[in-house]
Amino acid sequence: MSHNRWKTLRERQLTESYTEPADVTEARREIQLSMALAQAVYDRRTELGLTQVELGERAGLTQAKISRIEGSDTVPTLPLLAKLATALDATLNIALDAEETKVTFTSHHTDAA
Length: 113
Hints:
Pfam families: HTH_3. It comes from Nocardia camponoti. InterPro entries: Cro/C1-type_HTH (IPR001387), Lambda_DNA-bd_dom_sf (IPR010982). By secondary structure, the protein is α+β, with helices and mostly antiparallel strands. The protein has one domain: 434 Repressor (Amino-terminal Domain), CATH 1.10.260. Helices cover 57% and strands 12% of the residues. It contains 5 helices and 2 strands. The longest helix has 26 residues, at 22-47.
């Protein structure tokens, strides 16, 4: 693609009339969901002070599988998500909305203050 053609495409994208193709929008949504899950797993694991190896042992998974989940390189199945939630001693909460995705782990135990 020549520079002039790229510039024209970029200018079209910046105008208000540009609409992203549906397949691109869907791919973006899938990536955002995968990244939200990856961040939630990482946050909960580090909150517990676990390594990827330790979490893998708790969940019956390999360190490589935990790494792929945290790197958003894979989207786990529901049974695998259940294993992760159990291993992280938490409830997995996923809120899906047209505009926002929120994935969190809520601890089963609260510290008494």
